[in-house]
Design goal:
This protein has one domain: Glutaredoxin (3-Layer(aba) Sandwich), CATH 3.40.30. Helices cover 34% and strands 25% of the residues. The protein contains six helices and ten strands, in the order H-E-E-E-E-E-H-H-E-H-E-H-E-E-E-H. The protein has helices spanning 2-17, 83-87, 89-99, 115-125, 136-141, 172-186, and strands at residues 20-21, 38-41, 53-56, 61-63, 72-78, 104-110, 130-133, 148-149, 151-156, 161-167. A hairpin with a 4-residue loop joins strand 3 and strand 4. The longest helix is centred in the N-terminal third of the chain and has 16 residues, at 2-17. The protein starts with a helix and ends with a helix. It is found in: Cell envelope. It holds the Pfam family Redoxin.
Length: 187
């Protein structure tokens, strides 16, 4: 009996380290079934994110024009139900502060569209970087590509996807190395 408890506990711990599932609409295809906490190259690199008109957590309309003033934008897709997503927010905030003078911006997208919960969570975590409630275009052209959160993608000033996807939560140092590498590649 004790052996089964140990095995069950091990499975629960390992599944907790893999990130969170995203609630998807039935029949929504996911482009990836990888495990969390990995970085991979994206075959969709070079594609431009379709036009969108989302709202931020204050109710302001935001379009893909937000990419224009930055060399690099880190887009972190997260859910209000996802512990690892919430835990990485202070590190993501630190990235926003560290890289803002280097033409890098950070954006969060709330995959489950829960505005009030997102406001509470970002306030509690001190996350002042831009967070968006996605419109249908972002849901169809970005969020539906993934079966899990958190996931982070990077785009250039035109909204063109770069070839890096980060699956699962990361810490400041890991994201910082990825951003430095992407900035070096764009020079």
């Amino acid at each position: 009996m004790r052996r089964w408890i140990i095995i069950l506990m091990s499975i629960l711990v390992l599944s907790g380290l893999c990130g969170c599932d995203k609630v998807s609409a039935p029949g929504t295809p996911g482009a990836d079934s990888g495990t969390a906490s990995q970085e991979r190259q994206e075959s969709g690199a070079g594609n431009i994110l379709a036009d969108f008109h989302a709202i931020d957590l204050e109710g302001n309309t935001v379009s893909n024009d937000i990419f224009n003033a930055y060399q690099l934008t880190m887009i972190n897709i997260w859910g209000t139900f996802c512990g690892p997503c919430i835990e990485e927010m202070p590190d993501i905030q630190r990235l926003q502060e560290q890289f803002k003078d280097r033409q890098v911006q950070v954006i969060g997208i709330v995959a489950d569209n829960k505005l009030q919960e997102a406001r509470q969570i970002t306030a509690a975590q001190g996350a002042t970087y831009l967070n968006l409630i996605p419109d249908q275009s972002l849901m169809d052209n970005l969020i539906s590509r993934f079966d899990y959160v958190p996931v982070t993608v990077f785009v250039d000033s035109e909204g063109r996807f770069l070839n890096t996807i980060v699956s699962g939560a990361r810490d400041y140092e890991s994201y910082s190395k990825i951003i430095e590498g992407l900035l070096d590649n764009q020079r």
